[in-house]
Design a protein that fits this description.
The chain has 17 helices and four strands. It has 458 residues and is mainly α. α9 packs across α15, α10 runs antiparallel to α12 and α10 packs across α17.
Length: 458
């Protein structure tokens, strides 16, 4: 016996539900510290500020985060004899500290990280709610169906993530100059590949994509945007690969200081494998192994078609389309859940550098490790933005692709530029897959270079 709720009978109920839901989540995230709680308890590492205090009344070792090279005017370098040099092991100490809200809010880009985190959760929740609300059949329009709010939140969220990841990419000390140069190179190469895909120069049997509804100007803009997006994803991909390399202990160092734990390690394994697997689902040679092309013949009364199904364990085309969407959703969610493990591995990079410098020679030079420890503490939230942005883009694009085709028909000025059905469905879904593909390829290439010893974590 079916029962319909009274408040769902009105034509504007979807809009009211979406507005109340979005405002409630916004208020909850505004007055709570969910981003800080999500990162609460991460272990950061700091060098001692003073291991040999000159003041005898001092309590001893004092831990403080300060820029490497900062010295007070009262301290003078101690002259040591040339005939005998002994390294003071006390100066090689490092302290471990559990992060709380007070520590996190002092980090650079914390407000930006908290803002993009909160807005992404609210917007993705609104897009998810849109798929469960019944459509208003008695009237048309974005207000009646309530689709204006998820579209607006999804588009603004996508723009916000794109702006913040572009901003952190130009941070001078956050990444190496070589990484910035490689980002530009990756953007140029990806633009060329995007032109080959969009102009359908690459045969259609390679990629399960279609761009027939786009004109020349739209294809040009799409290819350029794909290239720019690939360039922005290069530095986050390098951070993902280093986190995976350390978190899964590929260097076989067996150091308890950088141990990830079995749960975090499983998250890193599954998130990487699912990213690679999902990126292959739009490649026809791989998709043909999963799709059962003969399953439609089972509805025929002719029994001779049943012989073609022997040994074929594939799924129908409709089930395969749904399966691809579920894999995209799982990839975005799983990479978001791996944020905590990735950020812990980012902090552990500094510990590994400290350990390597400490045992590199009999007279260790700890200035490099001190600088690295400071920078990894200082740019913790910036790294969080880079870990968080790729899965957020995947979920935003995927959510926008699930909006009905007829929604934007009420905006003729926008539909005159790009076909609305292509804008909402095809292009959004394609961009979601493109982010997963670029991330999977770049991470795999970096891991291969680590495996061959061309790159190394230091």
């Amino acid at each position: 016996m079916s029962m319909s709720l009274p408040f769902l009978s009105s034509t504007n109920n979807n809009l009211i539900i979406q507005a109340i839901f979005s405002l409630s989540l916004t208020l909850i995230f505004s007055f709570s510290k969910i981003p800080s709680f999500f990162l609460h308890g991460l272990h950061t590492y700091i060098h001692p500020d003073d291991v040999t205090p000159t003041n005898p009344n001092s309590s001893g070792i004092k831990a403080a985060i300060r820029r490497p090279g900062d010295t007070t005017s009262g301290l003078k370098p101690r002259k040591k004899p040339n005939d005998k040099f002994e390294f003071d092991e006390n100066k090689a100490q490092i302290f471990r500290l559990k992060l709380n809200h007070n520590h996190l809010q002092s980090r650079l880009y914390f407000d930006q990280f908290r803002g993009v985190f909160n807005f992404t959760i609210v917007a993705c929740s609104s897009l998810l709610l849109h798929n469960f609300l019944p459509a208003a059949k008695d009237s048309a329009g974005v207000l009646s169906n309530g689709t204006l709010i998820p579209i607006l939140l999804g588009f603004l969220g996508f723009c916000r993530v794109l702006i913040i990841i572009s901003r952190v990419s130009f941070e001078r000390s956050a990444s190496k100059r070589s990484e910035k140069q490689l980002s530009v190179l990756i953007a140029c190469l990806a633009t060329i590949i995007a032109f080959l895909i969009v102009l359908e120069i690459i045969p259609n049997w390679v990629f399960d994509l279609g761009f027939g509804s786009l004109d020349g100007y739209a294809k040009f803009c799409t290819a350029v945007f794909m290239g720019v997006l690939a360039g922005l994803l290069y530095v986050p991909a390098t951070r993902f690969s280093r986190a995976y390399w350390l978190g899964t202990d590929q260097i076989r160092c067996n150091l308890s200081m950088i141990y990830c734990g079995w749960f975090g390690r499983m998250l890193l394994y599954f998130s990487y494998l699912l990213t690679v697997f999902t990126s292959l689902l739009w490649i026809n040679p791989f998709a043909d192994l999963i799709v059962n092309k003969n399953i439609k013949n089972i509805k025929s009364k002719n029994i001779r078609y049943a012989n073609h199904l022997t040994g074929n364990v594939g799924m129908s085309r409709s089930d395969f389309e749904l399966f691809r969407l579920c894999c995209l959703l799982a990839t975005g969610v799983l990479n978001m859940l791996s944020l905590r493990a990735n950020m812990q591995m980012f902090l552990n990079e500094a510990v590994l550098s400290w350990y390597q410098r400490l045992h590199a020679s009999k007279v260790p030079d700890m200035d490099y490790s001190r600088a690295k420890v400071f920078l990894h503490n200082h740019y913790l939230c910036l790294a969080g933005i880079q870990f968080f942005s790729p899965p957020a883009l995947v979920l935003f694009f995927l959510g926008l692709s699930r909006v009905d085709d007829s929604v934007l028909d009420h905006f003729p000025a926008l539909c005159g530029l790009i076909p609305c059905s292509c804008l909402v469905k095809e292009m959004s879904l394609f961009m979601s897959w493109w982010v997963v593909l670029v991330l999977g390829v770049l991470v795999s290439v970096n891991l291969a270079l680590y495996r061959q010893g061309i790159l190394y974590v230091s």
